Amino acid sequence: MASELCKTISVARLEKHKNLFLNYRNLHHFPLELLKDEGLQYLERLYMKRNSLTTLPENLAQKLPNLVELYLHSNNIVVVPEAIGSLVKLQCLDLSDNALEIVCPEIGRLRALRHLRLANNQLQFLPPEVGDLKELQTLDISTNRLLTLPERLHMCLSLQYLTVDRNRLWYVPRHLCQLPSLNELSMAGNRLAFLPLDLGRSRELQYVYVDNNINLKGLPSYLYNKVIGCSGCGAPIQVSEVKLLSFSSGPRTIFLPAEVKAIGTEHDHVLPLQELAMRSLYHTYHSFLKGGQLLVLWLTAAPPSVCRLLTC
Question: Among 126, 191, 248, 261, which lies 20 to 30 A Cα-Cα from 154?
């Protein structure tokens, strides 16, 4: 196996290969053959998925100076070393499915980086220097242990796809709404209880996924015309608490859809998601509102917060 590996790397050096595939090699250490003499000066893409690497060499950038893409998916790497910051031409870094606990601040020096994948690790935080990645378009930090997002993340002005599923986030920083290029935001399976009211204000943001945030009971009104994933949100209501709402005019009684049962009582604040439901109902039953009689009856029986909503 070792001789075969050496031969593969030697051929790549002699023939000045730009791509080198070292996946599924059961490597426990970074191959010394890659670091011999001048290294592989022409190499642009290195694939080392599904090995058993635990660290990266400090002279990686010196020996592979033109590396553009580095794939280290499914290894046992615990720390992203400072040396990674010297790969100034790197555009894609995949460290998914490792054992990462620390990402060094030097990652912010990868000014050409466009795609960063750190999913399925043990990260509890990311350094604020992530905000220095001005060319970053994709950031996948799903399935970690993050409690917050990097405080300067809103400075990644090119960021288009942000995936933070299955972490421990309980809020979304409002400055995240300032990302001008963000097109898709996925925060499913966290502990979110609310979202910033400005979320969705940007025209670029078209897809928002907040599924399985059990404490999340409302969505900002700016998200009404977006593609939304919100299944599994909101605490389930016990059957004994369910009361089907209705209003009447003479002999006619109109029952509201069962989904409205979770709107709450007159003591509750009307959340944006509930606002959408009430406005939808108003238009649905508009044909029944003759001369304003039924509307008056409805408003008379409705909570004050709903009255203010529908008469504004």
Answer: 191
